[in-house]
User: Fold this.
Amino acid sequence: MDAVTLKDVVKIYKMGKVEVPALKGVSFSVEKGEMVSIIGPSGSGKSTLLYMMGTLDKPTKGEVYIDEVEVSKLKGNELAELRAKKIGFVFQFFNLIPRMNALKNIALPMTFLGISKKEREERALELLEMVGLKDRWNHRPSELSGGEQQRVAIARALANNPSIILADEPTGNLDTKTGKEIIELLVALNKEKNQTIVIVTHEPGIAEKCRRIIHLKDGLIQKDEVKPS
Amino acid sequence: MLKLIFKMAFRDFIMRKARTILTILGVAIGIATVVSLVSISTGTKAQMEKSLAGLADFMVSPSSNAFGTGSKMDYTYYLYIRGFPEVEAAAPYLEGILAVNNKLSLIIGLDPSIDAIHSSPIKEGRSINWSAKEAVAGYAAAQSLNLKVNMILHISKGPGYKGEDFKLVSILERTGGFIDGEIYIPLQYMQRIMKAEGKINGVIIKLKSPNLANSFKQRIKKNLPDLEVFSPGTIMENIGEVLSLLDSVLLAISGVSLLVGVTSVLSTMITNVIEKTREIGVMKAIGASRRQILTIFLFQSVIVCLIGGILGVFFSIGVSPFLEQQISLASGISFQAVYSPELVLGAIALSCLLGVASGFIPSWKAANIQPVEALKYE
Assistant:
């Protein structure tokens, strides 16, 4: 079963009267349990592609399916619910809510689904333990290192047991050693929990960690390679 | 979810203390202005009703002279009117703004006939002897002129004029009516000071029965066409017109101060939304719906306005003794602002409404931010 499917997705941005194509017709599927990296130079459309998969942006043309549901048919609130339930985002700049401690940041996506406080906190603590930060549950983002913040962000992405985790340059703001640890955490999640993960990166070293690598250039898939297992 | 909204709103306040306090102050001042103005307006109306309730049934005085401070009539009119069959008791009066120990005050000259119409409870001192050079002061007049029983009052046409001395024999209880602001002296001396011997401003009438009002009015109209009959009702109507004009002025002032409050909340909320653009993007990305974002921001704005509203009400009640004192001093009537539960609840409801009105556009904007653009926002 596919976690995400894109069918001939085109995205054109309008800058005044000028039309700038970011994606020129991209089709592929990500199966459940896969770990895929999308690699390409800056401006190749990889972040746009990730946002399409995350339903944060709508394609100008083409279709996006999450768990075989076509996204363009959903209304605003249904989309929000889909994002809360099926998609977990990990950003380059962590994007944690500064005024909340680690536990509350992780519990936030569960709050949007109306999950009880007890359940939220239990789950958030579980996730904190999983990313190795149980002792730091009460620390605010400003009291955590970059690597720790990204671990919290990964835990937050996992909060509602999503079908897919979308990571946008998750190591882009970290030093090499910490970046490696974060990628290892994501690899472990994929291997041990069979978590579907898509990573957007421009670093070949990061892409190499995934079995499947989609090369993107000028808004088109150049190569879709799957390494033999 | 509600708890989260509440917490997020409060965390924001704590993070932006100065801005929040200033916004709350803006709303508090607006609401305090409205509450004070309404309480003063209600107080004025209540005051007028109370004052007029204390008046005699009717007053007869020359036409277009409702309060009798202008044209005068001969004392003989009083003797004539007193004999009308409808009249139970009548009392002549002459009033004027005179200097009491060189300070201007409203003085009424009366004679013993007033005792059959009015009896005002004495707070301190004894009853006046209408044939002696004695005076009685209303509660507010005594306070504003700092008068004490047994003091000698020098009453003259104006500061610096030569006048006559009166012994203050009593100060009246506070009635809440016109009486509070007046000083009474015997009519004959009043006429002498005002150089109006044989003249009065009008006659206070007590009818034998309220049913005789029309017949009394007809008789005056027929026999004394240059005089007019004023009843508390007609006076109330005239005052009502003035008060409704006052109300419109107060409404306009309230409107302006509320507009200032709305603007300050609006600008704070817009700044909040702009500052949180990225955060809104993140929240949307992790599953917050438009309605949830809208509620968070709308709630913030309502909370700010509600706190401002409650503070405003307290502030208004806090300064009311000062306002009452100032108005009493200026008008010579002991004034009391009226704070009804309806006014307090209305003000709090108004502040919530203000929160919704001023927070809606920024909250709507926040709810409709495109997550992709918001996430790129620096």
User: Anything to note?
Assistant: The mean pLDDT of chain A is 91. The longest helix of chain A spans residues 176-193.
